[in-house]
Input
Amino acid sequence: MSKAKTEHKIIIATVIAVVSIWTLDSVFNAWVLHKGTFINLLLNVRSGEPLLRILLTLSFLAFGIIISIITSRRSGTGEIVRRHSAAIEASMDGIAIFDPDGAYVYVNQAFASINGYDGPEEFTGKTCRVAYGDREYDRIRSIVEPVLVKSGRWLGELLATRKNGSTYYQEASITMLEDGSRICIMRDITRRKRSEERLRRSEQFLNTIFDSIRDPFSIFDRNFQIIRVNDAYARMRNKEASGLVGRKCYEALQNRTSVCEGCVVNATFNSADPCAKEKFMVLHDGTGIWMEISTYPILDEDGSVSHAIEYTRDITDRKKSEEEKRLLIEKLEYLSSTDGLTGLMNRRALTDGLLYEIDRAKRYNSELSLILCDIDNFKEINDACGHDAGDQALQTIAAALKTILRKADLAGRYGGDEFMLILPQTSIKGAEKIAEKILFAVRNAEMRFAEDESIRLSLSIGLSSLEADSDTPDSLIKRTDDAMYASKQGGRDRVSTVNSYPLFP
Output
């Protein structure tokens, strides 16, 4: 029944009571006391006791109104109590009320269910020791009670015991009332505690792995803020780990206001792929090292890169090994293509070079000339002065050739005392000019092999040029060799072309 309906009924009943009393009083005065007729007494306010009737009427009305108010308030209070009781019973949190001695006064169904009981009635006449066990109960008395007495409220975690003897963690809020009783609101947090424990163990596991990494290792968020570094990373940067965490990497490490150029972490943020690069770094002690920096993305639930892992490895030894290997390869290539005595190209390198230049000349329809040189009377030099003098003669000729060669020209020792010069993009006329320079350069190169002994050297030179697409290295060499033989037959120390006549002595 609503508050308004209750008030209306009380007021109506009061009015009816007043009218009834007025009527009964008129009936009593008319028929019993014979003071007049009933109608006159009912309607005539002058007769009888009108003032008394009015006061009586007002008193009844006031009484009715008061009763209405009181009833309404009681009804509202009862409704509130009913609502609160329903809310308490429907709550998923366990709610219990203890008296000052710790005995249960009230528990809701959730409290009973969480503790493994069928219903609240099983707690009747029992103390809270049954829900916590002796050890935890003593802890409550020694730790919780002093806080309640001092501040009136305690909030924390307790280890509770279910009916079957199993334990669980509960989060409890206990409030002390004025009469010393207590209200406890609690919830089972065992699952949360287990999750926290798993997380703690997982974090401890990851920390162990993180700290065991000997190479520099770091984690950055999307804003390039350093989330974590290991000791190796801090030592490499000559920084304290605590001074790096929480700062932007380009500020803490490079004293910059923006991301570094070629930043591999930024590349991972943009591509969402692992990236790597090699970088030469100078440490604080001046030592230069090569580092291989690798980055890996960490994706969030939406598949976006939220963090990046940077792993740095010292590859200085590998780079040194690679450099030594490169130098060794270059040396081997040099030795495999170079004549050890003269420092010019050897026969194999000359053959490869001539094949390449002929192919290029044919492809681009350009000119190509070839020169062959033979040292005059070389056998006599060896026989008369010894092989050391012969070697010196070869070296003298090689030095003279180097002074004449252009950058594009190829020169080498073709065999014994013969030298070959490959002249790309050079006509027969241009080759003749170069041959003439060689001839005079050798004539002027006096070779001394003893204190008072010297030898004048000379060359027999033959030259030819690429004539047709059908020309091969062998055919070109054959024509040039014929020209060189013509120079020897013509008296040596001269240049001849392929038509076997000397151009000039």
Remarks:
- The chain is about 50% helix and 20% strand.
